[in-house]
Design brief:
Number of domains: 2
Largest sheet: 12 strands, mixed
CATH architecture of the largest domain: 4-Layer Sandwich
């Protein structure tokens, strides 16, 4: 039955309409049919089957590796299990390394579809850290700086149509029975994970409470240093990040957190990634770039205010944000940066003269939508190379801001404020900035948030802005584990020498 939020619980969906044995039979038949004329020479092989009986809603509890990507407002979910192909990179040439690997893969990737299979061909998941030289220490240990990744089983569900894509390395095709056995095992793993999922009313009701001091002198002093650097003319804006640590009596469960995030933030991109020991979860509101038929779209977000449950008060907060000289200046820096990054890559570029508002549950942002047409031969990764990091996550001028962060921001950002997304075979794709995220480590979790600092910033107001941003994840985590939490910002744990 649908719950109060309109989601069909996965336990109900799977066992009412999904016949795993039927899918296994179709998989075996279609797989053998592909090779009646011989085994192809390829680097990666994928087979997509239509799966109308599967209506997954939410992330079931799964072992690593997995990745989950959802847009509740678009009724879109992608769930990947296992690993068929990956390439990793780090350093200043990471975009070149990833682009070369992707081009080579596309030349040698054989994709087959069962007649009638819905949706696009399977794509490649990508993730890049904020800084190219980040060694991925502390809570990020075990994750690569940058990665392209294809799961062995990819479930894609959009607008009521569902497909399953099975992938394997080309050299595995010589052992067809082993490949089929592995894929069948992943189907069973998915079934078992969903069947043991607890129903919503059985979820733990313990509270995870974050305990932090009223003021955070370490972080506000960093803001004061940033303001001094800006006023001295060294830079125009810099985005400083905070991190807090939660400690709970029980383990944090990604599936439960994602279920709550789907209800609280249906317009955000929901993400869960477990490729190693820790799990990254996020509800990010910011799109870096989306490419469809050579048309690229970018979100310029900069300037933030809180929300109020009182409609009149909420309107006043919105008007104050729209008329704030500080917020408009901060936003203009982001727009100008995106515009200058895209102009050399596009035939044409269009953007409105004034920003609009994007309203989330507890935040509202100044937003400008930017649209252009990419020149022939320019890829989405080429655009990402120029766009990232934006002033919304680093500052401006970009190189100066990044150097300032390298010298003054003593925390390991890892993937926080980096890039996550999907790249499709036809060149299309969707890339987002990883914000509003947490890294789960059993009974502990680390949460990240940042604030854009300009000349007239007030350290206490910026601290409050990070508190509002952290609330997005905290609200979703409050019913997943027990007390208590401790601040991490003043701790030296996880500090490193190098980029932010």
């Amino acid at each position: 039955m649908p719950n109060q939020q309109g989601f069909l619980h996965p336990d109900t969906a799977m066992h009412n309409t999904f016949d795993a044995s039927r899918i296994q039979q179709q998989l075996h038949a279609q797989f053998r049919k592909q090779f009646t004329a011989g085994i192809p020479a390829c680097s990666l092989f994928s087979l997509t089957l239509e799966c109308p009986g599967l209506h997954l809603r939410g992330l079931p509890p799964l072992p690593a590796p997995y990745l989950y990507w959802a847009r509740p407002d678009r009724d879109l979910q992608q769930l990947g299990l296992g690993e068929a192909w990956r390439t990793t990179a780090s350093g200043t040439q990471r975009f070149d390394t990833l682009s070369k690997a992707l081009r080579q893969l596309e030349r040698n990737w054989q994709r087959e579809h069962q007649p009638g299979s819905p949706g696009p061909s399977p794509g490649v998941f990508c993730a890049l850290a904020f800084a190219s030289d980040d060694p991925m220490t502390a809570c990020w240990e075990g994750l690569p700086n940058s990665i392209l990744f294809v799961p062995r089983l990819l479930l894609r569900s959009e607008a009521g149509q569902t497909s399953l894509t099975f992938s394997c390395a080309g050299n595995e095709l010589q052992q067809a029975e082993a490949v089929l056995s592995n894929w069948s095992g992943l189907i069973k793993q998915l079934c078992q994970a969903i069947s043991i999922s607890k129903k919503p009313h059985e979820e733990d009701s313990q509270q995870a409470v974050r305990v932090t001091p009223q003021t955070d002198t370490c972080w506000t002093e960093s803001v004061q240093r940033a303001i001094a650097s800006i006023k001295s003319g060294q830079l125009d804006k810099v985005v400083t990040a905070r991190r807090v640590r939660l400690e709970a009596s029980g383990s944090f469960q990604a599936a439960k957190i994602l279920s709550r995030l789907a209800r609280l933030y249906p317009s955000c991109l929901l993400l869960a990634i477990k490729l190693g020991g820790n799990t990254v979860v996020s509800a990010t509101p910011e799109r870096l770039a989306t490419l469809r038929n050579r048309s690229i779209r970018c979100d310029a977000l900069g300037g933030t205010a809180g929300r109020s449950q009182d409609p009149g008060r909420d309107r006043k907060l919105a008007l104050r944000l729209l008329n704030s000289r500080k917020a408009r200046h901060e936003h203009a820096l982001v727009v100008q940066s995106i515009q200058s990054a895209l102009e050399p890559l596009c035939h044409e570029l269009a953007l409105p003269d004034t920003p609009a508002l994007v309203k989330l549950r507890n935040l509202q942002h100044l937003w400008t939508g930017i649209k252009g047409t990419l020149r022939t031969g320019v890829s989405l990764l080429d655009a990402a190379r120029r766009l990232h990091p934006t002033p919304a996550v680093a500052g401006t001028p970009t190189d100066t801001a990044c150097q300032w962060l390298q010298d003054h921001e003593n925390l390991a950002r890892g993937w926080y404020s980096g890039i996550v997304g999907w790249l499709q075979a036809n060149g299309d794709g969707e890339l987002s900035v990883l914000l509003r995220c947490a890294v789960l480590q059993g009974r502990s979790a680390e949460l990240f948030a940042g604030a854009g600092i300009v000349a007239d910033s007030d350290p206490q107001a910026e601290l409050q802005e990070t508190e509002i941003k952290l609330r997005a994840m905290l609200e979703a985590m409050q019913e997943t584990a027990g007390p208590t939490a401790t601040p991490l910002t003043n701790s030296k744990a996880g500090q490193r020498v190098g980029h932010s």
